[in-house]
C-alpha cells in the first residue's frame, strides 16, 4: 500500500498530520524523526513529511533526520520546524523572532517565474493546493502558525512563494528537487486550505494512491491482535465511555469471547447512574465475563488531601492498576494475561508519549504515564488497539462494529472521572454536588437539541464559595463552571456559542435544583491556549 512517511520531531500536532493524510485516503506512517531510513522503512513510501517540533534547529541536541532523507529521491514537505530543519541542513539560516507568530495569520501567495524543473516539475501540482497554478499570485488566506523562529536566509536552491502578514517566509519550493516547505500548520483545522495543501502534496506531487480506509485499519488491528494474543486471556479496563466500549467491541469481535474479560470499576468518580448504564451497554455487546468492582472508598481515600492535578492523576492511575492486579488474582487469570486499554492518540501525545523522542508533557493520562502502567507497557503486556485513532475515528469504528448510536455519540469522559473536574481536594460531598449539576446540564442539552452540536460538554466544581441569597437568607454556595466546546479531533477546540437564552435557563435550573451551587459561570477559553479539561 502506498504511504506517506511522517518523521516526528515531537510536535503536539504530528499525529494530526497523519490523520489529515488518512482523511485524504492515503496511508500515513509516523516514525521517530531520527529513524534510520532503511529500505524496509521506505517500502511503499511515496513521500516524506518532516513535522514541527518544540525545539529550535540551533539548540544543542536539536532533533535531526537521517541524512538519507535527502538522498532517498522522494518528495519532501517540511512543516514549521521541518522547513527550518531543511533550511539549516542545506546552508540557510534560521533565527529567533523578537515576537513569535502564533494563531491565525494571513499569508499572501506570490509565485515568481519558476523554472520548468522546479520541484522536479511538481511545483505547479503543489501550488494547486493554494489555489494557484505556479504562474502568478494565488491570493491571500489565513493559516495557523505556532513558532518563535523564522528563516532569515533561504538555503541555496529554495525560492520563496508565500509571505506572512508580518513579512516572513511562509511557503518555499526548491528549484530542482521535489522539496517544499511551510512555516505554518496545514494539519490544524483552523488553517484555511490545509487539507487541499496536504492533498496536493500527497496526491499531486507524490502520486500516492487512495488505498487507506477504516475497514483496512480494522483488518490490520485484528490480524495483529490474533497474532500477538493467541489464546491467552485479555483483561480490558472499561469505563463505559466511547473509547473503552469500542475497544471492548473490537476485542469481542476479534478474539474468542471466553478469553475477553471486561472489568469496570465503580470508583465513586463517575457520572450519575453511570454504573447502571455501563452494565446495560456491555451486556448488549455480548460480554461473557463482566466484572463490576465497587471501590469508591479506595479511590476517595487515595485522593484525600491531594489538590495538585498531576498528584491526583498519578494516585488514580496507580490505584487503578493496584486494584486491577488485586482483582485479577481473584479471577485466576494467572500471570500470562494481557491488559487492554482504550488509549487514543491524543492521550499519548498529551502525556509526552508521541512517536518522537522530543514530545512535551501537557498533562498525564492515568492510562499512559502511571508508573505501574509503564511497568506493564515495558513488559510488553499492554494492548491498545485504538492508539492510532482520534476520537472521531473511534466513533466511526464503533459504527462499523455495530455499536448503538447512543453509545457512539456520547461525549468524551476523562479516565480519572470527576476527580479532574473537581478542582482541589476531592470528597464524596463534592462528587455528589457535581454529579447532580452535570446531569442537569447534559439532560438539558439533549432536551434542547444542542447535545449533538457540541463535541464535549461538562461541569467543573471550583474550589471557592460565593456569597448568595436563598429566599431571605444569606448563604455561601459552590461556584460551578460550565464547559462546552466544538472540535473535530480534540487537538484544537473552539467555544460553543451558546444561545444566551439557553445558557441563562440552564444556569437558573442548576442553582434552583442543586442547593449547594450558588453561582454558575461559562468557560469561554479555546484550545489552545487552554486544554479542554480544567485539570
Choose one word for the global shape. Answer: globular
Low-confidence residue ranges: none
**Mean of pLDDT:** 89
| CATH homologous group name of the largest domain | Class I glutamine amidotransferase (GATase) domain
Widest beta sheet: strand line-up: 2-1-3-4-9-8-7-5-6
What is the terminal-to-terminal distance? 41 Å
CATH architecture of the largest domain: 3-Layer(aba) Sandwich
Helix fraction by DSSP (H/I, runs of at least 4): 25-40%
Write up this protein.
With 535 residues, this protein is an alpha/beta fold. The chain folds into three domains: 3-205, Class I glutamine amidotransferase (GATase) domain (Rossmann fold), CATH 3.40.50.880; 214-408, 3-Layer(aba) Sandwich (Rossmann fold); 421-522, GMP Synthetase, Chain A, domain 3. Helix content is 32%, strand content 25%. It has 15 helices and 18 strands. The protein has helices at residues 14-24, 81-89, 123-127, 194-205, 214-229, 242-254, 274-284, 296-303, 309-331, 345-350, 371-378, 391-400, 405-408, 428-447, 500-513, and strands at residues 3-8, 27-32, 45-50, 76-79, 93-110, 137-153, 158-164, 169-174, 179-182, 234-237, 260-266, 289-294, 338-340, 382-383, 456-470, 473-486, 494-495, 517-522. It has a nine-stranded mixed beta sheet with strand order 2-1-3-4-9-8-7-5-6, sandwiched between helices. The longest helix has 23 residues, at 309-331. It is globular and about 75 Å long. The chain starts with a strand and ends in a 13-residue tail after the last strand. The mean pLDDT is 89.
